[in-house]
Amino acid sequence: MVSHDMLAVDEAGRQTMLVSSRHMPTPGNPFERLFIRGFVATSTVLVRRDLVAREGGFDENLPAAQDYDLWLRLAADPYFVLVVLPKPMTIYALRSGSITTQAFTRLICGLRVIRKLYPLLRTRSRTPHITVLKKALILLGEFFLNVRGNLLRVRARRLPA
Fold this sequence. Notes:
Layout: E1 2-9, E2 15-18, H1 31-37, H2 49-54, H3 66-75, E3 83-93, H4 103-124, H5 128-158
Helix pairs in contact: 1-5, 3-4, 4-5
């Protein structure tokens, strides 16, 4: 599978570079790193169709984190290799109301994927409980940052001009 860095642009035109390549500086099997960070965005991926079909594609029962789930199932194969190119080749438009902004849904789905794939993690990691703890802390941190950002936006709208 090949992926690359990405430029995210919000509705105000602010740009943020999402540097996935820092999590995967050399090609290899990314299972544990992906489990912790989930650093591969769907719009940046090239992967063989037969590999995706073999894993059953995206889990339609997940309202979010379908890509995270699929990349982990692919990476569970010890021969799977991920290459992340250190160059942004995709621009991702952040829009209010998109799944990216739905913090609670993303948190719950991330926890569901952890639970679903924990048996695989136990076979691939020397410290699966620590890996799950790291991921859970990251998910909670992202949730609270998103909630804080939403509260700040609501307050800003209420202030008199």
